[in-house]
Amino acid sequence: MRLLALAFASALMLSPAFAQAPPLATSEGEYVIKDFRFRSGETLPELRMHYTTLGTPHRNAAGHVDNAVLVMHGTGGDARTFMRPIFAGVLFTPGGLLDASKYFIILPDGLGHGKSSKPSDGLHRKFPHYDYDDMVAADYEMLTKGLKVDHLRLAMGTSMGCMHAFVMGETWPDFADALMPLACLPTEIAGRNRIWRKLLIDGIEQDPAYLDGEYKTQPKAGLRTAESLLLIAGGAPIAMQDVYGSREKVDAYAQTYVETNLKTVDANDLIYQVAASRNYNPSARLEAIKAPVMWVNSADDFINPPELGLTSGFAKRLKKGTFVLIPASKDTHGHGTHTWAAIWKDHLAKLLKDSAPK
Questions:
Q1: Residue 264: predicted pLDDT
Q2: 256 is a domain residue
Q3: How far lies 282's CA from each of 181, 186, 209, 291, in Å?
Q4: For the chain, is the Cβ count within 10 Å smaller at the N or the C terminus?
Q5: Cβ contact 256:294 at 8 Å
Q6: How far apart are the C-alpha atoms of 15 and 11, rounded to whole Å?
Q7: What is the maximal distance between C-alpha atoms in the chain?
């Protein structure tokens, strides 16, 4: 696992406390989807979807699951993203808002990520060119056919997973009681957000060592460019200035960040992960979302800057939507604020209360 994936690119992620996992019982499993057809028209005979769960499903008198919670990770992450103290230690522990003794928590490794099927398994650039709709469709089939979960109490996601929550809410309006997208915009990836993604992909593909995806060793020059862009995109300006307030500290941190991630990143996997956003644009169908939405962004998010002025118009189009902008401070973590549950848990509590089945 990459130590600092895009979803975690924050100045404080190298602290010892961050590396300690809470003592929670988990189970892992896989569901294989046969002959999965991608929106591109490509197919895969077997698509492996890996997942981690906490708790057990509960069925109501009608036989429907009523306590399932889906949590979807960001670009470059996997289920382990949410087993850190800053997330699981706040939400999943006894007495937490998503106490695993009460909820059936499902943490998928998204298509192309973690232990799910991905280019580095062997197909390289011959792997189907998936997009966000494919990823959400694979999650949905894993849930409904693999885990037999026919309904979600809550679907939430961070960064890429935030965008997946919007896609899921539009595609299956009756599937979840509530949605909590964290750190994204429900619109086409354009402007600066698209620019850094394109530069990242170009940097890898134009490295002579990339060999059109058939490299024998990782194209390190291109990956250095990619990791550098990820650090800037996910960074927290206030926290970084506070923690790395001298040239020497900054230089040491930047080198450690890049060198650490170069040990585990795969070039094709990263290209596919970033490129999967290319078709994303739920803006035209926001009115199709029926579930209450608690949409939370942070003001120091480089990827989704509030000065774009897009959020108010989109929020008004959500039938039961609330948008929250967390002010930038020494307690926020840039784009990575989405994973520090203590910062926004009160908004989750309100969503759970307001969306409770009558």
A1: 95
A2: no
A3: 13, 6, 37, 15
A4: C
A5: no
A6: 9
A7: 62
- Per DSSP, the three-state class of 284 is helix
Here the tokens at position 164 are: 């997946």
Distance of alpha carbon 81 from alpha carbon 90, whole angstroms:
14
Neighbour tally for 126: CB within 10 Å: 11
Residue 246 to residues 26, 243, 296: CA-CA distances in angstroms? 41, 9, 32
Three-class SS state of 215: coil
pLDDT tens for each residue of 13-68: 434 344 444 579 999 999 999 999 999 999 999 999 999 999 999 999 999 999 99
* DSSP assignment of 118-146: -GGGTTGGGS----HHHHHHHHHHIIIII
67 contacts 55 by C-beta, under 8 angstroms: yes
- 109 assigned to some structural domain: yes
How many H-runs (helices) and E-runs (strands) does the chain carry?
Answer: 10, 8
Domain-embedded: residue 263: no
Environment class of 248 (CB within 10 Å of its CB; exposed 0-12, middle 13-18, buried 19+) = exposed
Would you say the C-alpha torsion 248, 251, 254, 258 has a positive or negative sign? Answer: negative
- What total of structural domains would you count in the chain? 1
Question: Across the strands, what pairs with 181?
Answer: 157
Q: Which residues of the chain have pLDDT under 50?
A: 1-21
Q: Which domain holds residue 118?
A: 6-191+275-354
Q: Cβ(77)–Cβ(6) under 8 Å?
A: yes
Q: Are 26 and 79 in contact (CB under 8 A)?
A: no
Question: What are the start-end ranges of the H helices in 172-219?
Answer: 191-205
Q: How many residues in total does the chain contain?
A: 358
Q: Tell me the HSE value of 82 on the side-chain side, using a 13 A CA sphere.
A: 30
pLDDT, residue 358, reads: 80
